[in-house]
Specification:
This protein has a seven-stranded mixed beta sheet, sandwiched between helices. It is globular and about 70 Å long. Helices cover 40% and strands 19% of the residues. The protein is α/β, with parallel strands linked by helices. The protein has two domains: 267 residues, Aldehyde Dehydrogenase, Chain A, domain 1, CATH 3.40.605; 180 residues, Aldehyde Dehydrogenase, Chain A, domain 2 (3-Layer(aba) Sandwich), CATH 3.40.309.10. The C terminus is likely disordered. 46% of the residues are buried. The chain has 16 helices and 18 strands.
Amino acid sequence: MIRISAAHLPGRPGATAGRVIAEQDGVCVLAPDLDAAQLAGTCAALLDAQSRLAGVPVSRVIRAIDTAARRLLDRDEPERMNVLRSLHAISGFSEAMAAHVLDRAVQDWLEPELTSLVRGELGGAEAIEAFVRSPAGRQVRAVAPRLGLHVFSGNVPGVGVTSIVRALLVRSAVIGKSAAAEPALAPAFARLLADVDPGVGSCVAITYWQGGDVDREDAVLEHAGMVVHYGGAEAIAALRARAPAHVRFIEHGPRVSFAIIDASSGADLEHVPADLARAVALFDQQGCVSPQLAYVIGTPAQAADLAAATAAALAAIQSELPRGRITPAEAAAIREMRTRAEFSAITGRGSQLWEGQNLDYSVILSADPCFEGTCLNRTLFVKAVPDLAAVLSAAAPYGAVLQTVGIAGFHLSEVRPAAVALAGIGATRVTAIATMPWPPPGWLHDGRGPLRELVRWTELDEEFREGPPLSGR
């Protein structure tokens, strides 16, 4: 049995084991059972560490993150090995998918990307370290809450580490709550960070408690100035309701993404089925950026051709990135959706179904243009529509949960008007289908700047730009 810790508590190396929170296929994940008082003590230690981080150059923080991230790319690194074991055994991803996703996620935590992120979001590290001249000519400085509670979700590996990285870039300490469905990557990264730079690493603690534990969460909320919550709508709403008014609450809840392919434009669409299939297959469709529905502007025959080609591409991907383990409930949901499609085909409603063996994938051609999601795990709806207006009409009622829209087949002159229209109904990102799964580090996550949403701006009046110190009166 391989034992993996879902916790990292700076200064308490012997306190990262404890009760079992997940166990599967020879992998056992453990976490300490910290009570409210112990969590409060952890928060106090993090605030003390943050006071020292406040004097650390952002360039040093970036170098530490980069070095820790690169160790996750080392095939001989024990932390990497344990992460991959957990992603396979606990999270259920195939071994190939686990390695592919980890290697790609790490790219966003390297120095060039982080330096570019800070520059693009805040104008440069100087805005975090001192007062700087803004484009409007004012003296301003970006200031983040000293400590944030980060609640991680378990559907997409790497999101928790990205949340940690963003906080550290603005010199905010992190207490992270691991997700039982993906408990290994964030604490592994935190341990590596503490190893390469103890000063920076002392500002990150990761542990686990059952979501909704009022005593433990309230103990953390008493010390945190910010909550960053990835998860389901009910869990987010419950914690938000208890967070004090002064605590900044940043939520990243459930979102839906879809694709639009203009088959009537005469554009070359040969690459689209492969791009669409890969976007569906990555993360086994668990990501908020994973398309669940593809609208084809054109005839039903054109939609059927694209559906068939996408199914063939999904079959081919299965040999490269096999679909991971699914639960009995997930299997039942796939069978039920397939049965509905088969019944619709029998009754002459224009449906067709392409399906893989062992529930590996399902592509459903539907004549109903309504906007709808699927049961995930590589299940895709394909629907023919006459024009973009029909897509906008169908998707507009779901604007509050829309995220990424992947497009193909549009003439260049049509892309911007289409993006404007999609933004108008709630979409927060319009991109090529091939780039749907991997937004750039600086993307406006759910429509908000990833660093800007963490900070407030302090302005120093111009009269104090030079001259003697303030009198203090």
